[in-house]
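Regression test attached.
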Amino acid sequence: MSARGRKKDSGIPQGVVSRLPVYYRYLLELEEQGETRVSSAQLGEGLDFTAAQVRSDLSFFGSFGQQGYGYNVSDLLKQVRNILGLNRVYSMILIGAGNLGKAIASYENFKHMGFKIQAIFDVDTLLLGNHHAGCVIQPVWYLEEYVQKYPTDIAIIATPSSASQEVCDIVVRNGVASIWNFSPVHLNVPDHVLVEHMHLTDSLLRLSFRLNEKWRAEESS
Amino acid sequence: MSARGRKKDSGIPQGVVSRLPVYYRYLLELEEQGETRVSSAQLGEGLDFTAAQVRSDLSFFGSFGQQGYGYNVSDLLKQVRNILGLNRVYSMILIGAGNLGKAIASYENFKHMGFKIQAIFDVDTLLLGNHHAGCVIQPVWYLEEYVQKYPTDIAIIATPSSASQEVCDIVVRNGVASIWNFSPVHLNVPDHVLVEHMHLTDSLLRLSFRLNEKWRAEESS
């Protein structure tokens, strides 16, 4: 399962990896605001980490702030961008053109970062030939031929749960190295294939936790 | 912003909070597989944490494994469920019935956990009166009246970015305490309102990081 059993090949702890996108978003905002430098204390305050945590996290990437200066925002952003692999373009395919699939394909943020959906597949014959987000929706029975023909970095699976393993098997046996899985089931893949499971529920559970924490605090005060 | 500046009211570190849903999902799987007990080493292996990390995390909730026995799966699951606030029902409303909104409303996993969408609002007059996931889609100009009349725990915002702050202001000024934000913009809310921002991109960036890490490893071997 994606959230478990991840190999720590680079020696970078999972916690640091999971915080990287958060640093990225924050640095992007600072740059947009015209900030040129930032201290570990400011980064920490903005992100709800301690300054020591920030320094420790950033040291994994060989980035060290300067005493009395801090970090150069655009240098640090460039570095985080490179580490996240945002210095190249990714070819993606989307399987499943229901509401979720369509929402993913329409999500503007990915495109600007270099993630391009090249083809969309669906089993629903009523959708076939329709256009969405600049792609023609193709029959899923063309999927195997497509991935044999066109190098694909990431397959996005947004099918109903019952179909996701089958779809996964097709792309994996044709050399797709990574899967972004939106279906709420565990996918079985060989060790060399990466699966990132998008857990919508985790975010909602963090919210319900915080809401209960708030209610408990209000009751006891 | 939701990912930043969170108050640590309960004294439970953010890292532990963010791992709670992961423990929850894993324990649920163990229970479904008929497992009755689990050691911190097994939990750690399944979740890619050290056994010490697991013991430390669980101790925040007053849960201590027994030497030579470990944890009772159903007891621990019950406890995590309570901490996450899954022992009650949440009334939610959804604003925005585009592809993303519809996908959220159709997501089966929430309902089983007690999160019920009671009403759906949209500005698109073509959608009005349609049914989706058991709710009638209502005009967004009924939103204020609705939240005044019906207690609402969580407002889900799935509108275009340009509309999300306005919608947020309406629900906040009528006492909605928490917002699950799917629009890719920062929402300004008073301190007492909780915002959980659903960052689809973070998950994709973790995948691109891991993919690049894999490519670098392959190149250097």
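Expected vs. actual: identical. Chain B has two domains: 14-84, 90-201.
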